Amino acid sequence: MHNKPLGKRSLACVRAAIETAKQYAADNKVPLTAERLAAALDMDLAVFHSIVDGRYREASTADNTAKISAIQTAFCEATASVMEHAMQRGSSPNMHMLYLKENAGYGEKDTQETVGHAPVIILGEAEIEE
User: Fold this and answer.
1) By the 8 A CB rule, do 71 and 41 touch?
2) Contact 37, 15 (CB under 8 A)
3) Burial class, 90, CB count within 10 angstroms (exposed 0-12 / middle 13-18 / buried 19+)
4) What is the distance between the alpha carbons of residues 46 and 32, in angstroms, rounded to a whole number?
5) pLDDT per residue over 37-69, tens digit each?
6) Is 29 left (phi over 0), alpha (psi -120 to 50) or beta?
7) Cα angle for residues 7, 10, 15 (degrees, 5° grid)
8) Residue 26 has what pLDDT?
9) Cα(82)–Cα(106) distance, integer angstroms
10) What is the rounded distance in angstroms from the CA atom of residue 97 to the CA atom of residue 77?
11) 36 with 25: CB under 8 angstroms?
12) Which residue, 66, 87, 111, 117, has most beta carbons within 10 Å?
């Protein structure tokens, strides 16, 4: 991977790489993934994730901000694509869950139980027939 700084890439080039990754996923009937996006952008996954989670440091310009925003949006689409693919295929969710934990920040639910009472609000309660 070349990991060329974002400042050395045009916004059109970044958008074209994202579209290439999306087209690959569509053509092969597979979900769009962070790995495919990183490969299309010609960067390693660590650099890709640093852009997605806001750790990437480069001169802040409007052009770089637009590129970062495009990559972050594509990553959100990739996460949705993995989830939708898992639901459509009806396959075992284990691989998809692992992917989401490793790449999209999903994790186990907090096992600590809430003690006490919480209000329950039902919107449209007046319209419910008794």
Assistant:
1) yes
2) no
3) exposed
4) 17
5) 999 999 988 889 889 888 887 767 788 889 999
6) left
7) 120
8) 95
9) 13
10) 16
11) yes
12) 66
User: Please, is 45 exposed, middle or buried when counting C-beta atoms within 10 Å of its C-beta (0-12, 13-18, 19+)?
Assistant: middle
The tokens describing 39, both together, are 């490969």
Q: How far is CA 62 from CA 11, 44, 67, in A?
A: 10, 24, 9
Residues 6+ apart with CB under 8 A from 58: 5, 6, 7, 64
Q: Give the separation between CA 30 and CA 23, rounded to whole angstroms.
A: 10
| Separation between Cα atoms, residue 68 and residue 61, nearest integer Å | 10
User: pLDDT of 86-96, one tens digit each?
Assistant: 777 566 667 66
User: Does pLDDT of 1 surpass 80?
Assistant: no
Distance (Å, rounded) from C-alpha 35 to C-alpha 46? Answer: 10
pLDDT of residue 121: 66
d(CA 56, CA 39): 17
